[in-house]
Write a structure and sequence with these properties.
The complex is a heterodimer.
Chain A: H1 31-43, E1 58-61, H2 66-75, H3 89-107, E2 109-116, H4 121-125, H5 127-130, E3 138-142, E4 147-150, E5 153-157, E6 170-174, E7 178-182, H6 189-202, H7 209-216, H8 226-240, H9 258-289, E8 296-299, H10 304-316, H11 321-328
Antiparallel strand pairs in A: 1-8, 2-3, 2-7, 4-5, 5-6
Chain B: H1 4-47, H2 49-67, H3 82-113, H4 120-127, H5 130-156, H6 161-187, H7 195-209, H8 219-245, H9 252-271, E1 283-287, H10 296-305, E2 312-316, H11 319-337, H12 341-350, H13 352-360, H14 364-375, H15 390-419, H16 423-431, H17 448-468, H18 475-514, H19 518-551, H20 565-585, H21 587-592, H22 602-619, H23 623-647, H24 653-681, H25 684-699, H26 705-718, H27 725-742, E3 746-751, E4 760-765, H28 770-776, H29 790-799, H30 816-829
Antiparallel strand pairs in B: 1-2, 3-4
Classes of the chains: A alpha+beta, B mainly alpha.
């Protein structure tokens, strides 16, 4: 079994005690930034890779070779706190997709360092399995903090507060050792996404600071209209998330119709499907890079085209709210 | 958005816009004032036109004649006439001065005597009196003109002859107008005439608050319009108080004022459809939110600042109606207190139209509320004094009649709006609506309660447009949402109507009965029955509309009102039965009252209605209800016979007998129906109800004088070859019963034709009762009601049994016992055995005539249930 293998050596720094120096570092602390990131994390895949809502849900490889499951599980097992076995393949892939989605939702892109495992020799030495296994054993490690691509390498920058602890300002990693995932163009790409997440942070404010101050000091702010402020915040939030949609219940009943809320929920699930499909395609691209001939397949979850069909059916009045929500539930 | 300057600039911009709009509004007011002045001037000119035309004609002829010569008119007056010229102008100025003095003195007299005690608002109305002001302006103009010409003549010797003509003409106009104005001044002795000005103001400001008004969407303007309307209402209140204080204004003037106030509601209510629900035109009152039901932002603000939740301000959409109707209610209270019954009658009559509009505008709930307030004024407490003046009683009855009519007009107003509601048209309009323009919402023709749903949609669709740049919610959803509001509102209106009937008619009728005001109780319950009859009659219109609305419902999860029509009809029937029960119980008291052609025949109406309803109860097998009304009906019939005998005492004997016996024939026929329907429904209690009363009737009739009298009357009148109005009514009973019996299933009955080769077949009604089978005959076409009428059934089965050993001739045309025996034999021959009837028990044996079957056995047809 491969879980006895020793930890491979990575080039990048895996943890910054002072906190990673991300561009949108504070977004996660805001109400709607937090909600958005968590919503993406929880809805992109069934939690824990299991669902009772969809009988035919399965995450598989295009091979039945057990060793492939083992190697690929080990490779995508980035959440180290979870122990796994080969049979946890679905959970590991689900966790990886959910975890990378969370980083994508927060930062617009995520980087992993790839370590190739010479300790896989144990596997390769197995006469039965080695005949059928292709590709290199690997492991992905999340690269925290600010990462930039410079020519044929990626540079991980040490946060300014910790520069004195390191003899260098950045760590350089060759690009073939980095697995990068960005927000797909269908969801606006990285730059647009960062604007969106900033807007969520801005619109999380319940009142402007001067009104807060006025309330605390009993100073009248007669020129401020709470109703208009709340309306504008809601509109801006809805505008910002137009490509992503919103989970059911996040849009205020005060300003939206039930149809709109269901529509936005479907749009959110569509965005989740797009994101999931994109991440899986990137994961399969990585497997190709690493010499694997098999691919990851996710079956039993509604894809973006199916959700589009449901949205159109709903618009034409051919399906009710309950029916459509049941159809896309997972 | 997060910085103070943004909000300051926003406020500055808003203030600037407001100032501009206010200036625009003032300019608009000035223009309106100019137009009003022009209209009044034109009206004044028109009124003197005839006289002026004549003057002008003479003037024209004079001028024309002079023109053909040397046009001396333009020449200056002769030097020796210059003094006369000046004297003329001075005279004109003096006359104008006198006119002004007279007019202002009369106003001063009014203000100093009548108006000095009045509130400032009313005094201002007098000062703002437009016609007088225009006239004064005209006089001032004429004075100045004359003064100028006088000055010019003095200074520059400019004295053309035409000046004399112009000034003379204008002076004539001034004289003529003054006569009209003087007459008009007299009307101000009645301050209620000023109410028209206030109602005009209400009209003006409410029109401005609609979406067609000036800056209707601006909160400041909305609030301004409301304040103006409040001021006008306070003026009306003040005038109403004056009417109450001044003895000479307490009758007709007060009634006229309240009539005008009622009238003002007529134009306002339809206009409400065009006033936004969130407009400051409506008064706002705070509604405190629940912590666990408030939205996130509100809770976050309150938590962040450690304060309570800010209340939401809810508009009071009925504030103006309430204010106007409060004047009416208060006036009624005062009139009740000092017994001004004629004024009460006028007020209630004038309220009929507003109630119709309340119904038409789907404000049934408010109408109900208003009616409850009217009822709470003790309108008819002790209104029927035992020794009261006849005239006074009539007015009270008329007032009660007018009050009882109000729910009916409310209902009919509502129904008329349903008839004009075209859902297809509304649906088409909704699909074409421009969601960016708010005015559109109010011009679609939706009923007033559904407007709030459109507004709800407008703001949320607006959010969609802002967020997604297009309308996301499809047409079907928006239509369904709007129609859901109509459906909900329809449900509320119907509930309010039915509840109104229950709480108004029933409660008030009971109160009147307890107060021993029998005529009033009968009058009101009659109106109640009319109300429910109309509800039942018009219910299909509502049902059709509800079906159409249900068809638009696509999302089953959307809450939709539930309709149980059977239950509604049952409820209506229950209330009707209660009302009829009260009505019937009043019969003995009504019988004791003297009859008069000056008042409606309440007694006759009550007896007739009780008879009709008893028949209805028999048809529907309503035992308790039948039991409640038969005894009073029986008593009423006997009393009616007595009173008819008195009233027809001077008539020809035959005519008098025919008329006075008709109620008895009704009674006997209905008693017969009780026997028949007891068999039909297999419910012996129906028969017992009748039997018990008849038993009591003959119990103390030792020598059967009453029955002999009855037999004599019945045998004489029922066979008399004349069709009386009552006999035609009895025919409708037979038709109804026949129709019911014809619906019974029939079974084939083989008939033996005495050894012929071909056996024949007849039919027999499949019913356990032999009586029913006998009545129904042996074929569909051979229905027995034509031959055997219910009167015969009762005579044969009941009356004759009460005089054993004596043969009373009731003029029966058939022998029921023989018919029943024949029927039984026929069935026996045909080999048909019917199940035993439920009414066939020893304790419920039916009485039979002793003329037949004296030695009856178990197969005897006297036990006509097999």
């Amino acid at each position: 079994m491969i879980h006895n293998a020793s930890t491979p050596k990575r080039k990048t720094i895996g943890y910054f005690p002072s906190g990673a120096d991300y561009p949108n570092a504070n977004v996660y602390q805001t109400t709607y930034g937090h909600r958005f990131v968590n919503d993406v994390r929880l809805h992109v895949m069934p939690i824990g890779g299991k669902t009772s809502e969809r009988e035919n849900f399965a995450i598989t490889l295009t091979t039945s070779e057990i060793m492939h499951y083992e190697i690929i599980s080990e490779g995508f097992h980035t959440t180290r706190h979870v122990r796994h076995h080969g049979k946890d393949f679905e959970r590991i892939i689900s966790e990886f997709i959910a975890d990378s989605s969370m980083h994508l939702a927060l930062h617009g892109r995520v980087f992993y360092e790839i370590t190739r495992e010479d300790q896989r020799s144990e596997v390769n030495k197995n006469p039965v399995e080695s005949n059928t296994v292709q590709g290199e054993a690997f492991r992905l490690h999340l690269i925290p903090g600010r990462v930039k691509r410079k020519g044929s390498s990626y540079q991980q920058y040490v946060p300014s507060r910790e520069r004195s602890d390191y003899p260098f300002d950045y760590v350089s990693v060759p690009k073939d050792l980095v697995f990068e995932i960005e927000i797909p163009p269908s969801l606006g790409g990285c730059k647009e996404h960062q604007n969106m997440i900033s807007m969520l942070a801005i619109t999380s404010e319940t009142l402007p600071p001067f009104v807060h101050e006025g309330l605390h000091n009993n100073i009248s702010t007669t020129d401020f209209e709470t109703k208009d402020f709340i309306w504008t915040m809601e509109v801006e939030r809805a505008r910002a998330t137009v490509k992503w949609g919103t989970i059911l219940g996040l849009n205020s009943d005060e300003h939206t119709l039930e149809y709109f809320r269901v529509y936005r929920h479907l749009r959110f699930l569509r965005a989740m499907a797009l994101l999931r499909e994109y991440i899986v395609s990137q994961m399969n691209g990585l497997l190709v890079r690493l010499g694997f001939s098999c691919r990851i397949l996710i079956n039993g979850l509604p894809n973006s085209d199916e959700i589009d069909v449901y949205i159109n059916q709903l618009a034409r009045g051919e399906i009710g709210f309950d029916d459509v929500l049941n159809a896309v539930k997972y | 958005m997060f910085r103070r300057p943004y909000w300051r600039i926003r406020t500055l911009r808003r203030n600037l816009k407001f100032r501009l709009r206010r200036s625009g509004s003032r300019a608009r007011d000035i223009l309106e004032e100019v137009f009003t002045t022009a209209r009044i001037s034109w009206a004044l000119l028109r009124s003197v036109l005839r006289a002026s035309m004549f003057s002008l004609a003479i003037l024209g002829i004079t001028i024309g004649a002079q023109r053909f010569t040397t046009l001396p008119i333009l020449e200056p007056v002769a030097s020796n006439n210059q003094d006369a010229y000046d004297g003329f102008l001075i005279s004109v100025i003096t006359v104008i001065g006198i006119f002004l003095t007279l007019y202002l003195t009369s106003l001063n007299t009014l203000a100093g005597t009548l108006y000095v005690e009045l509130p400032r608002r009313i005094r201002n109305l007098l000062i703002e009196e437009k016609v007088g002001n225009v006239y004064i302006s005209f006089l001032i103009f004429l004075t100045i003109l004359s003064l100028l010409f006088l000055s010019a003549g003095t200074l520059d010797n400019f004295r053309p002859k035409i000046v004399i003509i112009i000034v003379a003409f204008l002076s004539c106009v001034a004289v003529l107008v003054f006569t009209q104005l003087a007459r008009r001044t007299f009307t101000f002795f009645d301050p209620t005439s000023l109410a028209l000005i206030l109602i005009g103001e209400l009209n003006k400001w409410s029109a401005r608050a609609t979406v067609t008004g000036y800056f209707w969407h601006d909160v400041s303007f909305q609030d301004f319009y409301r304040r103006q309307a409040v001021s006008a209402v306070s003026g009306l209140v003040a005038i109403s108080n004056i009417c109450d204080e001044k003895q000479y204004l307490r009758q007709e003037a007060l009634a006229n004022l309240l009539g005008r106030i009622s009238f003002s509601v007529l134009f306002y209510l339809p206009r409400k459809r065009q006033i936004p629900n969130d407009s400051r035109w409506y008064e706002l009152s705070p509604h405190y939110q629940r912590w666990y039901m408030a939205d996130h932002s509100t809770i976050a603000i309150a938590t962040g600042t450690r304060t309570g939740l800010k209340p939401k301000m809810k508009p009071d959409h009925e504030w103006l109606e309430k204010a106007l109707m409060a004047i009416e209610i208060e006036a009624i209270r005062k009139c009740v207190a000092d017994g001004r019954s004629h004024v009460i009658y006028r007020i209630l009559t004038d309220l009929s139209r507003p109630f119709e509009i309340f119904g038409h505008e789907w404000e049934v709930e408010y109408g109900s509320h208003l009616l409850a307030e009217l009822s709470s004024t003790n309108l008819f407490a002790k209104a029927e004094p035992s020794n009261g003046i006849q005239e006074e009683r009539k007015v009270h009855l008329a007032s009660l009649n007018a009050l009882g009519l109000l729910p009916i007009t409310l209902l009919l107003g509502f129904i008329s709006s349903l008839s004009s509601l075209n859902l297809k048209e509304l649906s088409q309009k909704l699909s074409k609506v421009n969601w960016k323009s708010r005015e559109n919402m109010y011009q679609l023709g939706f009923p007033t309660p559904a407007i709030s749903a459109l507004e709800y949609l407008f703001f949320r669709v607006g959010f969609e447009i802002e967020a997604e740049n297009h309308v996301v919610s499809p047409c079907w959803y928006l239509r369904q949402f709007a129609f859901q509001a109509i459906a909900k509102s329809l449900r509320n209106q119907l509930d309010a109507l039915l509840s109104l009937g229950r709480h108004f008619y029933l409660v008030q009728t009971h109160a009147l009965v307890e107060d021993k005001q029998i005529l009033m109780a009968v009058e009101l319950s009659a109106r109640g029955l009319e109300f429910y009859d109309k509800v039942r009659h018009h219910l299909p219109i509502l049902q059709d509309l509800v079906i159409q609305l249900d068809e638009t419902r696509f999302l089953k999860t959307l809450p939709w009102p539930q309709w149980d029509w059977e239950k509604e009809l049952d409820n209506i029937r229950d209330i009707e039965k209660t009302l009829i029960g009260v009505y019937a119980k009043c019969i003995p008291a009504l019988a004791a009252l003297p009859s008069s052609t000056d008042t409606p025949d309440y007694f006759g109406q009550a007896v007739h209605l009780a008879g009709e309803e008893f028949f209805g109860a028999l048809l529907k097998n309503e035992v308790d209800f039948a039991s409640d009304i038969f005894a009073p009906y029986f008593f009423g019939v006997l009393s009616t016979v007595d009173s008819l005998r008195e009233e027809t005492s001077g008539w020809h004997t035959m005519d008098a007998l025919l008329i006075s016996s008709e109620p008895l024939l009704d009674l006997i026929e209905l008693s017969g129906y009780a026997y028949i329907f007891a068999e039909y429904h297999q419910e012996t209690q129906l028969r017992k109800i009748v039997e018990d009363i008849w038993d009591k009737y003959v119990a103390d009739d030792e020598d059967f004088a009453r029955l002999e009298w009855l037999a004599a009357i019945v045998s004489y009148t029922r066979n008399f070859p004349v069709i009386t109005p009552r006999s035609l009514l009895r025919t409708t009973w037979i038709q109804t019963a026949s129709h019911l019996f014809q619906q019974l299933p029939r079974a084939p009955l083989p008939i033996d034709f005495g050894g012929t080769a071909l056996p024949g077949y007849s039919t027999v009604t499949d019913h356990p009762s032999l009586l029913v089978r006998t009545i129904c005959g042996d074929s569909d076409a051979d229905f027995m009601f034509g031959i055997l009428d219910p009167m015969d059934v009762f005579i044969e089965l009941c009356l004759k049994a009460k005089v054993p050993g004596r043969k009373l001739d009731f003029g029966s045309r058939v022998n029921l016992s023989e018919d029943m025996q024949r029927q039984q034999e026929r069935e026996k021959e045909g080999g048909i055995v019917f199940s035993r009837s439920k009414t066939d028990s020893d304790e419920h044996d039916l009485p039979t005539s002793d003329t037949n079957y004296e030695n009856g056995n178990s197969d005897d047809p006297q036990r006509f249930n097999t």
